[in-house]
Amino acid sequence: MMRPKAMSGGEIPVSRRAAALAQSEMRTATKDEIVLAVVGPDGDEHGFDRDSLRVVGRLVLAGIAARIDLPVSVIESLQLALDAVLRRQAGDGIVTVAFARGEEELTFRVGPLLLLLPDRHRLERTLQASADDVVWEDSPRGAWVSARIARRVSDQTTR
Amino acid sequence: MTRVMTEHDVDTLLRAYHREGDTAARDQAVVELMPLVHALARRYSGRGEPLEDLVQVGMVGLIKAVDRFDVDRGVEFSSYAVPTIVGEIRRHFRDRAWAMHVPRRLKELGVRLSRILDELTTELGRSPTIQELAQATGAEEEEVIDALDSANAYSTRSLSAPFEDGDSLADRLGEDEVGYEEVEQDSLLAIGLEALDERERQIVELRFFEEMTQSQIAAEIGISQMHVSRLLRRSLAVMRGRLETRAGEEL
């Protein structure tokens, strides 16, 4: 299970930082947004419990996607894409996944991630196969990626 | 260098145990045959049960096989032991793994969904929505999501999901094992892939080795994503069937 990890120099414990981070993610949150923030155990090079986050992330994604009537095949592709993102190493022992639902679209934002450029290109290719827009943001703690998926009539036949 | 036990060596130990009551020979036979249990347990790893648990269950099967083997029937011990060990591992999944990780109603819903998903896809000419699946099955949307996710986790992890160290089952298939080299030399994936035609094999390789999405594969080989989804599902079923047949042939 996840345990709080103390930061060096007597700074704020990671668990509180995770909560603060999640809070910052939620500052623009609406009733249709869900934010998951997970702190990894001490010494875990991956920084977070990937399996737990992936399982919850898949279900949340499917739940939101169902609300905007995305077909199962698209949901499965999105789940695979999110799964691929969450297999990457976290940038700071904390990873946050924020889901947002609009009238006809959903967005998920994940980060920070430690990614080398070739891996980033690979992830981008994976995400672009499922999402309409993929946006990367770089921060000192790692990269953040956002993927937006809009529901279209064509979803019903082409994906 | 470790000497590989032959069927003759095993037979000698088992005769000593069954005819002369030599329990040391029994213990030695069990120890010498442990690599066989590991090899068989690995075939079932990646399905949500820790490999260590599968090895333990397999060891129970091995001990049963050693104790129940009739040395006078003139058959090789491995012919008797393999199905006994595999049977014990499969019983473990049937009795515990599914029940523990997937509630029975979800398991049953998953089976129904698999059929209805294909039917609705054909009927609608597109992939159905969660809501449509819920209506067709009479289940809640949340239950449909859970059942689909449970089914996916069970059926695909065996090939693609990473273990704690990042390896996948495919990565581990080629590990060396002392003894029973013929068992190890059988790359399970290769056996499964042999059962597929060229296009199916290409799709499986793109999905699980290249980690491409269904949409990417569809674009790559020029068919619809829906068709890729159908072919992948069928290919995995064919591969599972071939592997189970293979295990049965080792009787």
Shape of chain A: globular
Question: What is the overall silhouette of chain B?
Answer: elongated
**Largest interface (CB < 8 Å):** A-B, 30 and 30 residues
Helical coverage of chain B, percent range? over 70%
On the 0-100 scale, what is the average pLDDT of chain A?
71
What is the oligomer described by this structure?
Answer: heterodimer
Query: By helix and strand content of chain B, what is the structural category?
Result: mainly alpha
Order of helices and strands of chain A: HEHHEEHEEH
Q: Any low-confidence stretches of chain B, pLDDT <50, length ≥5?
A: 153-187
Distance between the termini of chain B: 30 Å
Tell me the strand percentage band of chain A.
25-35%
The total of helices of chain A stands at 5
Describe the overall structure.
- The complex is a heterodimer of chains A (159) and B (251).
- Chain A is an alpha+beta fold and 159 residues long.
- Chain A has helices at 14-26, 50-67, 72-86, 117-130, 155-158; strands at 33-39, 94-101, 105-113, 133-139, 142-150.
- The model of chain A is unreliable at 1-15, 25-29, 40-48 and 153-159 (pLDDT under 50).
- With 251 residues, chain B is mostly helical.
- Chain B contains 14 helices and no strands.
- Chain B has helices at 7-20, 23-32, 34-43, 51-68, 77-101, 104-124, 130-137, 141-160, 169-172, 181-185, 188-194, 198-208, 214-221, 225-249.
- In chain B, helix 3 (34-43) crosses helix 4 (51-68).
- The longest helix of chain B has 25 residues, at 77-101.
- The radius of gyration of chain B is 21 Å and the shape is elongated.
- The A-B interface holds A 55, 58-59, 62-63, 65-66, 69-77, 79-81, 84, 87, 122, 125-126, 129-130, 156-159 and B 117, 124-131, 133, 141-142, 145-146, 148-149, 152-153, 162, 211-216, 219, 224-226, 229.
